[in-house]
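COMPLEX REQUEST
Ligand: magnesium ion
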Amino acid sequence: MLALHRISHHFGGVRALDDVTLTVEKGGIQGLIGPNGAGKTTLFNVITGLFRPSEGTLSFEGHNLLQMPPHRIATCGIARTFQNIRLFSEMTLIDNVVVGMHARLAYGTLGWMLRTRAFRQAEAGARQQARQLLERVGLAGHDNELAGNLSYGNQRKLEIARALAAEPRLLLLDEPVAGMNSTEKNEIMSLVKSLRQDHMTVLLIEHDMRFVMGLCDTLAVLNFGHVIAQGSPAQIQANPAVIEAYLGQEESA
Amino acid sequence: MDWSSWWATYSTLVLSLGVYGLMALSIYLTLSCGLLSLANAAFMGIGAYASAIVTLQYEGSFPAALLLGTAAPAAVALLIGVPVLRLSGVYLAMATLGFGEVVRVIALNLEITGGPLGLNGIPLLTEWWHVLLALVVTVALLQALRHSKVGRAFEAIREDETAARLMGIATERVKLLAFVLGAAIAGLAGGLNAHYTFTLSPGNFGFESAVDILTMAVLGGIQGVAGPLLGGALITLLPELLRGLQEFRMAANGLILIAVVLFMPQGIWAPLRFRRRPGK
Ligand SMILES: Nc1ncnc2c1ncn2[C@@H]1O[C@H](COP(=O)(O)OP(=O)(O)OP(=O)(O)O)[C@@H](O)[C@H]1O
Ligand SMILES: [Mg+2]
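STATUS: Structure written out below.
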């Protein structure tokens, strides 16, 4: 459903992505791993239109993403979370989630100006659905708190709820369990697993190997902007190039 | 003092309260979308001139004058908004101030605007209820906007434009909407203003006025429509209330503003203040 072909992206002299070819198949959970600075977040930024790659092609369900502004890519069915949390911290939890539904709320200008029936129904429906999403990620009962007041782990959960609110077909999670305790990690794990039933495709970046190996159907490994391996978790764990990349990181760390 | 002599003395002040309330709302609109635009005074000027030209030189009706006074700055905003709104923060502030200067210089040099003398003898058509009606309609519009997806998009853009964009919000269009709507409100205020002040001159809508209008919103707070209305009223009334201090008036005015900004950085009207838990 998502196909990157020979994508390169440079920051000055840094080749953050170097000739990356990668496909994400519909359905299932794919992991993207690699040492710090490997280019994983950059890859997400390219997919979501924040960065325009210097070379290569990028398509999603037949759409050429390189010709779309970021908000159009989002409405095409791609939603994401951020490694460095980017919530609307002075908005309530429920409003954060409803913002995620922005493009799906179809009432026009006259709708909100005159507060028509269609407007009121759409808004009430959105709130209702937002409450369900908050419940789903484990934040029920905090609807009207400000997002900025949440604990770190709960902020990550809220970001997932906000991304799900767009009803994406492809969900990109950038280190969804970073900074979480093990209970929270297990909650996120079962949440992500449950997305299979919604026929959502997930591409996730994570450093926590137990989480990645326990969750993902397939894995891709990035190192210095190159894809160095792709395969099942078992294949990846046995791959000498991957072991090398991670050992190299430990030695230099 | 009976009613008619009271009104004779204070009508300008009362009408100004409403008109500057509108101006504060117009800048609140752009600020709530994260745009530090200082073009509102200039938009007010365009509205004032456009509507005064309709009644004074073409003997048009007052509604027609107000309509043009609202539409003309909105059209200008639409034109300049596309390039100017690529800027943000202080760069946007500087560009919009520069735009204000351009408008002032144009008004100074055109024949139809009366050049440096401005326009005189504008018919006194603005009644108190016109201003009240404009305020009520504007407040209703802004409240409806605030509680819709558009209002949430404004807030999202103000907090994190990139995140907003990735939520599927067409940020450029939404910002342009805020800019144009803000210009329309300022233009309406200008049209009303022109028809009770009798005269207009290019200096009325310059730098000082732009800063005053910004101060109204900063002072009142931008967490809702009540803040700017309060700020607009204060900035309009303070010089009157401090009249007794004579030459120290402007100094006292300044000190009050500094105190508010120091001790209430969110503005006077800041309901969110009470939502924040201590220590966070
Ligand atoms: N906006 C930017 N400007 C300049 N260089 C950048 C930028 N973003 C990333 N880089 C550089 O690109 C390289 C890849 O960074 P990226 O954030 O994609 O790594 P990552 O794989 O997500 O790492 P981590 O696991 O630490 O999050 C790094 O060398 C980084 O310094
Ligand atoms: Mg990263």
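REMARKS: The mean pLDDT of chain A is 94. Chain A is about 40% helix and 25% strand.
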